[in-house]
């Protein structure tokens, strides 16, 4: 495993190769070590790589094991997708961060997807209405066993983290800086509490300072770590809307606090509702919706049981992937290499045959 970590690190240091490309390369070659030692021509078979990539791979000049030792001296705590502790839900998305640095208290149940995490995000300039409902919803979620993920930004994020900690809940902050950097500085007290009572994560190494381009990218991690995203207040141009877009792409549910047309901080939320997001009609309504979302409990393969049926090849391929643990449609598409339309048709047939059920967020599991 240590060797695998070294190659994830080495590849991540090559400019021009992003998280999506690395996941494709890892899947194609079976390991990043195999890819590191492969000739450039072998990468022509990897779908979706452009000409800039072939120039970038000529930079494979690091010695991965030595690089790991040097990097770990400044960044002692980080996960790669090769690590068993790497957050399971992040492995489902198309762009899992090659390196995820962390600081604070690690909870294995969160990383394994057993404890459900909900993202709560919104504007940096919330109204009293937005702050009040953020506090109420956060405390209600904590009391029902959910953890809270947000971005430690000013405004809604800050209220969500503080409310979670005040309720003795678990919260994760995803930063657009290194985990050793407090931003905004006004949240220095919150940062200290997160280190001792929660968890801070980032895909950026130590000493990385704020950069405008980092924050939209970190929003995919917020969405990826969670089973659902709640948007409290957001204007038309808001990072929270980027998080909602990633959540939709990843098959996560998006819930929105309705607001007034007179409030500019609610206009982005109203646009999300117009695009099909779930409206929040109160705490009980949200809990009812989330109550249909299954936990990702670990079930040993021997404990699986589903009917033995004769199916057409495409149906069999899809059915073989579905178990008691729910699986998102994007993961099914990726593993079967069928297109989305074909997959949806096949899933509908399996539902009609009473073999599987669809869950919120376009997730599927066998019918008990």
Explain this structure to me?
The protein is globular. The chain has helices at residues 2-12, 19-29, 32-36, 51-56, 64-74, 108-111, 128-143, 156-166, 188-197, 214-224, 239-249, 267-274, 283-291, 313-321, 329-336, 340-352; strands spanning 78-79, 100-104, 117-121, 147-150, 171-174, 199-202, 228-231, 253-256, 278-279, 327-328, 356-359, 363-366. The chain folds into three domains: 2-74, DNA polymerase, domain 1 (Orthogonal Bundle); 102-291, Rossmann fold (3-Layer(aba) Sandwich); 301-366, Arc Repressor Mutant, subunit A (Orthogonal Bundle), CATH 1.10.10.10. The protein is of the alpha/beta class.
Which tags fit this structure?
Rossmann fold; nine-stranded mixed sheet; 368 residues; single chain; globular; Arc Repressor Mutant, subunit A; DNA polymerase, domain 1; three-stranded antiparallel sheet; alpha/beta
- Sheet bearing the most strands, described? 9 strands, mixed
CATH class of the largest domain: Alpha Beta
CATH topology of the largest domain: Rossmann fold
Query: How many domains make up the 3D coordinates?
Result: 3
Spans of at least 5 consecutive residues with low confidence: 294-304
The side-by-side strand order for the widest beta sheet comes to 1-2-6-5-4-3-7-8-9
Brief digest:
This protein has 368 residues and is of the alpha/beta class. It has helices spanning 2-12, 19-29, 32-36, 51-56, 64-74, 108-111, 128-143, 156-166, 188-197, 214-224, 239-249, 267-274, 283-291, 313-321, 329-336, 340-352; strands at 78-79, 100-104, 117-121, 147-150, 171-174, 199-202, 228-231, 253-256, 278-279, 327-328, 356-359, 363-366.
